[in-house]
Amino acid sequence: MSGAPDSNLAAIVHTSQGDYRALVGRGIIKHLGEEARNTGLHGKAFLIADEAVFRECVRPVQESMESTGFETHVLVLPSGETTKNLDKIRDIYAWLARLRAERQDVVLALGGGVMGDAAGFAAATYRRGVPFIQVPTTLASMVDASLGGKVAVNLPEGKNLVGAFHQPKLVLSDIDTLKTLPAREMAAGWAEAIKHGLILDQDLLSTFETEADRLIDLKDDLAVDVIRRSVAIKADVVSADEFETGDTRVLLNYGHTIGHALEAVSEYGQFLHGEGVSIGMMGAARICRDLGLISDELVDRQRAVLQQYNLPISAPGMDVDAVFEATKSDKKSAGGAIRWVVLEGSGKSSTRRDVPDELVRAAIESLVG
């Protein structure tokens, strides 16, 4: 079995649970069954899919898996952050139990980051863990959420508070599935990729600045190349700091403290995750400027590139106090001090635990006024 061509390999992620490949290409979803076999998987396949991709993607995935001998069952769940709760996870457990899923079987997550989180968390905890494959169909999940094994559900008290590290056996991203995405979802995905450039790769950031038209239209191989580069950055970070115990993986949370707070205060109904991150990055950049770490010029560059990709840079009308308080429940906090990711230049970042409350509040006020 040959599977997808080796040229589609974006990265190999090295983890304590084993190494796995991240594939990125066009039209490669048809190779999924072969790639699952090449990865050493067998048994039955339990495909958990986002209803948003049901028409376009479920049948090709099911046909690919069944053509290589996987008996495949399909569960379709509603789109959106509200699927990431313990009630829905209970429904997944019941479905797996009714179909007598065993530990050698495989769960497939087909959809965006929400589906990867929900299906991945179910896979991590059902029968103490079954293998799973990520088949991300949104740009945000391709470059970020599908890699690294962080799976979780939300509680009313906060986002991703119940979760696990459960690494996938394979991540397969077919760029052609992005055709199913509304423009707003695509823009939200570019936020995570642009973030990779801002924190770790100034050349990638420059590409985003100079090639926006080509990238937004996904019209040629540049888009595939840039998505592979972004995937490779995330893979390198995960390989270096799998459990976010060091100072590397936390850098990926640039913009997320305020972004998550905006999502929580709006009860996950107003902002897509990437939109929250985009606004949060503007708040974080203001904090970095006020700390004397970066110049106004870099703040302006960040604002301009986010606007090029049709991303929001403010959140008018949000309650300053509520957003400020929500930042306090950030799960990256330690000993009550939030670990802020800060820019020190283009493609250069670090963390700080000593950001004064008044700078945070001023940054939030600048976003919501």
Explain what this protein looks like in three dimensions:
The chain is of the alpha/beta class and 369 residues long. It folds into two domains: 6-180, Rossmann fold; 184-368, Dehydroquinate synthase-like, alpha domain (Up-down Bundle). 45% of the residues lie in helices and 17% in strands. The protein is built from 14 helices and eleven strands. The chain has helices at residues 32-38, 54-67, 86-98, 113-125, 139-145, 183-200, 202-210, 212-216, 221-240, 256-265, 273-290, 296-308, 320-327, 357-368; strands at residues 9-13, 20-25, 45-50, 72-77, 106-111, 132-136, 150-155, 158-165, 170-174, 340-345, 348-352. The radius of gyration is 20 Å and the shape is globular. The model has no long low-confidence stretch (mean pLDDT 95).
**Helical content class:** 40-55%
Strand order of the largest sheet: 1-2-9-6-5-3-4
Query: How far is the first residue's CA from the last residue's CA?
Result: 58 Å
Q: How do the SSEs run, as a string of H and E? A: EEHEHEHEHEHEEEHHHHHHHHEEH
CATH topology of the largest domain: Dehydroquinate synthase-like, alpha domain
Shape: globular
Give the C-level CATH assignment of the largest domain. Mainly Alpha
What is the number of E strands? 11
Do you know the CATH architecture of the largest domain? Up-down Bundle
How would you characterize the largest beta sheet?
A: 7 strands, mixed
